[in-house]
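INTERNAL AUDIT FORM
Audit reference: QA-55
Scope: verify that the stored structure record matches its stored sequence.
Auditor: D.O.
Record contents follow.
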Amino acid sequence: MSIVLSISRRRNSYVLLNHVRFLRRFSDDVEPPRPEIKSESQESVVAKFLENLKNLPQHDWASSESLSSLLVSSSSVSPIAFAQITRRLGSYSLAISFFEYLDLKSESLNRRDASLSLTLQSVIEFAGSEGPDSRDKLLQLYEIAKEKNIPLTVVAAKLLIRWFGRVGMVNQSVLVYEGLDSSMKNTPVRNVVIDVLLRNGLVDDAFKVLDEMLQRESVSPPNRITADIVLHEVWKGRVLTEEKLIELISRFSSHGVSPNSVWLTRFINSLCRNGGSTNAAWDILSDLMKNNAPLEAPPFNALLSCLGRNMNIGRMNDLVLKMDEMGIRPDVVTLGILINTLCKSRRVDEALDFFEQMCGKRSEDGNVIKADSIHFNTLIDGLCKMGRLKEAEELLVRMKVEESCAPNAVTYNCLIDGYCRAGRLETAKEVVSQMKEDGIKPNVVTLNTIVKGMCRHHGLNMAVHFFMDMEKEGVKGNVITYMTLIHACCIVSNIEKAMHWFDKMLEAGCSPDAKIYYALISGLCQARQDHDAIRVVEKLKEGGFSLDLLAYNMLIGLFCYKNNAEKVYEMLTDMEKEGMKPDSITYNTLISFFGRHKDFQSVQKMMEQMREDGLDPTVVTYGAVIEAYCSVGELNEAVKLFKEMGLQSKVNPNTVIYNILINAFSKLGNYEQALSLKEEMKMKMVRPNVETYNALFNCLKEKSQSETLLKLMDEMVEQSCEPNQITMEILMERLSGSNELVKLRKFMQGYSVATPTEKPSPFDVFGLG
């Protein structure tokens, strides 16, 4: 293999000699140590040499009898002593003069080659630090070494290769490398060559050297430094695709080499972010573990975080089990990811148990894992969202006695949100008072949480009074505060009050943006207040604002609901005047409108017009038509369109469309067909939601079907599907016995009810038992 030839095709070669002679190996793979010389005679010789050299002019060195006699008497001195003398001279000019003196007197030297090689190495060290002048000096020294047949040490070779590369003389770097004996082309030398080639953009040549190192029986296998150099440079220059990078990591792994933890974590994050390639990330870590490559927790945390976002708890369990098998200890970040995921999936008991088991253990770096405020806040938030407020308060008390884990505003805001969700508004206000007593100031999140809770529970006046009290204490509202109040006013059709808060928002210096107008229009549209919506639109236009496509779509939806075809036409005309074209939402709204009126001929025309405008029917489009067929009892047509979706349009049905059909069959009492659709959802990886189960529960009216009902309830728990008020109303009708009511209570707390089971250990769930 000749890298020189491939480089010379692209760059002008700087040729020092017509024929490159191989330099035989002299020193070990690592730089010779620079210890203080322990032998008194050697130290004495070094001191005497330095004293004579510094006291004599350089031009008198060669004729000095004292130096000559000292040189003769130093026959027992190690060659390293001459390297140390050279370094202590302190400058390049003295160092090169000393080397020339030794070369002149070489017949008096014991182990001539070793002494001259190590001295030359020290001279090269000085030359490389000479700044702009280093280029010519390094070239001169390399030429001297070849002319005088002085072997280069491994360290000297590495220095020349690296410094030639730094001054842009990559050809010369390669000449040095090619001139080395094969025994000197060890792993450290190859690492330097690869680094120089990659930094100079010679990727193919660098990979030729790397390929030799990655051979199965390579005498110079890669090490972690190799991986760091290669992966950092190819990542920085984006010279390899993700697939090629994965293949390269696998090749390093076969030698038991792992990328450094920081780079690997970044790459795992990149894989997960770019399309969620969790399988590829999983394969990389599995391959590294299989080859016993050294690994730490951060890369696993990156994958766990991605799996957690996708609620793939089964895969998280497998990964943590693998970590445990390989002795890779979780750290405080691992703890946070797992607790957060468990809480979000309503597995708060498992999160609590795992939290207790992990705290106090030692992480990979030897530090004891200590819970921090983030962990406690996550658990408190999870308990509050489950309605387990007493347990949340107990954790708050525990935080106050834990070292370096004091509660903060986030802690109290989680509790406040929990009480607001439960409708316990007075208790939420008491928590605010407790917060103040503990020296923590309420913030705008506190304000918004309580205002939102009060508005949600029809306490608009309470929300206003609380807002005014907080303003007196210096807590100012933001856009979210005003949007909440405006929206609440719109829901109760108090348009004047909504506009009052709009004006207040302007007075407070909160800049109005599209969201504020959307909130007004959206609130009015949801309240079905079409006349007030028109008034607001007129007022906004008077103020110099114009509606955008999103606002037009909301208004068209409102007028379609009101069956006001004239206003629908007016909105479409206005859109056209403003230069706006209908989008998929506009067409979907119109298709739904015609579908409700059983005007399927207009539905087909709308779909054709949609395609002419370059818009493909979406899953919402099909959902609107399927729902229209179901609403008039045309289930056969609905099912036919449902089956054609994936075949003709390549649009896959989503949860909403499945729910429309399941609900339609459930109303007809056809439980078998409804259940079959639910099973098809699982097979096609479409996640059922609470509406799915509510429809199925509604169909199970007979006492003989109670066992099936309980199994569906367990399935909801497994799917982390939170029941709503409709679920409770249906189940309370179906489960009237005292034993069944106990099961219903357990179901609401997130436990299985069909068969008695022991509460799982978090170590069973996450493979740390």
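Auditor finding: record pair retrieved intact. Residues 1-40, 757-769 have pLDDT under 50 and may be disordered.
Action required: none
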